[in-house]
Amino acid sequence: MSARAVMVAWGMVLGLVLLSPGVAEAGRGRTQYSGVVNLNEASEKELDQLPGVGLKAAESILAHRQKRPFQRIEELVKVKGFGKKKVEKLKPYLTLTGPTTLKAEKPDNASDKPKKKRKSRH
């Protein structure tokens, strides 16, 4: 087999892998968030619902808040584990006034349903 034939074969395999339904549909299973979390009033459980925030990070927010309430959302970078990028990603879900209204909705998982087999085009 010539080097050119090998390259063509690998190109076809790579194309099939990248265009397979499993990879293309992988992004559909993401959790959708709506609403906001009040940084100065939210409970540990409410803070834990934020995307990318776990219990340990929620505890760190509570500890910081007990020392000094947040005056600006950007002050979250002072809490260990929160950098500028993470705070920017969380900004749409954060507030300093009003109630906490964050809801995390997981879309219907298509992988739970049996997949239909495609007919070969030969």
From TrEMBL:
Chain residue ranges for the region called Disordered: 96-122
InterPro entries in alphabetical order: Competence_ComEA_HhH, Endo/Exo/Phosphatase_dom_1, Hlx-hairpin-Hlx_DNA-bd_motif, RuvA_2-like
Gene3D superfamilies: Photosystem II 12 kDa extrinsic protein (1.10.150.320)
Domain of life from the UniProt record: Bacteria
Pfam families per UniProt: HHH_3
Domain (Helix-hairpin-helix DNA-binding motif class): residue spans on this chain: 45-64, 74-93
Coiled-coil annotated residue ranges, if any: none
Composition bias, Basic and acidic residues: 103-113
NCBIfam families: competence protein ComEA helix-hairpin-helix repeat region
Protein name per Swiss-Prot or TrEMBL: Helix-hairpin-helix domain-containing protein
